[in-house]
Design brief:
There is one protein chain. This protein has 311 residues and is an alpha/beta fold. 42% of the residues lie in helices and 14% in strands.
Length: 311
């Protein structure tokens, strides 16, 4: 595999994604075999946004690979304000062996990759969350037997809620891997139009079917339902939150929706706002693989790092 960076889902081929999924499962089963891959290497983690799962899974994962993780938090300000992104990239490249960045703008990711002389990993931006999507497909791969399938391409996956960076990465990765993907959301919440067009183009190549609907009753039969919080950072204002909750209320994922779609598994990338986008009963049920997804963040990200340092 010839990865130089891991910036967006659509920059990987179907073969590369399947290899990363398989590698994540191998590392998970035999972590000791990979315990020295990052020996003597330091990874700088730039975090413009707060994080639990992303921070911990990268930090502990890098340690499991024998490397050293250095966290740069929000106290350093937004990239490009205190100093140019290009200067960040060039300075960090003097000392570190790779950069992991959780940022507000995808443009910051692109600039880091352009000016850094070391690999850059997108740990989240406004358009993509490729590490989350990769972990999700690792989780689905592990649950194929439970879902009655032999391969990922046989699955039908629906995302219900706000069209955001998570839904966009899932849609792109599904399109590349050949899964049928349905996005169900309120009108005007479909996400980035250019990414949707890109997913449709990729689906033509893989044989996947990409469906977008605003009507929850049109969701059809599904194997897996995925949801995410409706309230994004910055939308916590009481009046704004109330308007969002009213708009999204028909799109709650619950046992009734699971029964109507015949879905056997529900996914959530967390943090979960229980009784909003998903009921507590369903989130805590045996149908939920939310904590498997959380664990697989580390293994999927380690697969990316191992691949970046295997070139």
């Amino acid at each position: 595999m010839s990865l130089s960076h891991f910036l967006a889902d659509d920059q990987c081929s179907q073969q590369e994604l399947l290899m990363l999924i398989d590698l994540a499962k191998q590392i998970k089963q035999n972590p000791a075999n990979y315990s020295q891959v990052l020996a003597g290497k330091s990874i700088v983690m730039i975090f413009e946004k707060p994080s639990l799962r992303t921070h911990l899974s990268f930090d502990i994962g890098i340690n499991k690979l024998g490397g050293h993780a250095l966290y740069l938090g929000q106290q350093n300000g937004k990239l490009g304000e205190r100093e140019r992104v290009s200067d960040y990239a060039k300075n960090i490249s003097c000392w570190a062996d790779a950069i992991v960045a959780r940022v507000f703008s995808h443009e910051s990711i692109l600039q880091l990759a352009e000016y850094a002389s070391v690999p850059v990993v997108n740990a989240l931006c406004d358009l993509y969350h490729p590490c989350q999507a990769l972990a999700d497909f690792v989780t689905l791969s592990e649950n194929l037997t439970k879902l009655g399938k032999d391969e990922l391409a046989q699955l039908k996956l629906a995302y219900v809620g706000d069209g955001n960076n998570v839904s966009q990465s899932l849609m792109l990765m599904a399109a590349i891997l050949g899964l049928d993907f349905t996005l169900v959301c309120p009108q005007g919440c479909e996400g980035n139009a250019a990414i949707l067009d890109k997913a449709q183009t990729l689906a033509l190549q893989s044989g996947a079917q990409i469906t977008v609907t605003n009507n929850i009753d049109d969701i059809g039969q599904q194997d897996v339902i995925y949801t995410d919080t409706w309230i994004s950072m910055g939308d916590e204002d009481a009046d704004k939150k109330a308007a969002i909750l009213a708009k999204f209320a028909p799109y709650q994922v619950n046992h009734q929706l699971m029964a109507a779609t015949q879905a056997k598994t529900v996914m959530h990338c967390q943090p979960a706002h229980l009784e909003e986008e998903i009921t507590t009963e369903l989130f805590d049920s045996e149908m939920s693989v939310a904590f498997e997804q959380a664990e697989n963040r580390m293994w999927a990200q380690n697969a990316v790092l191992v691949s970046l340092f295997s070139n």
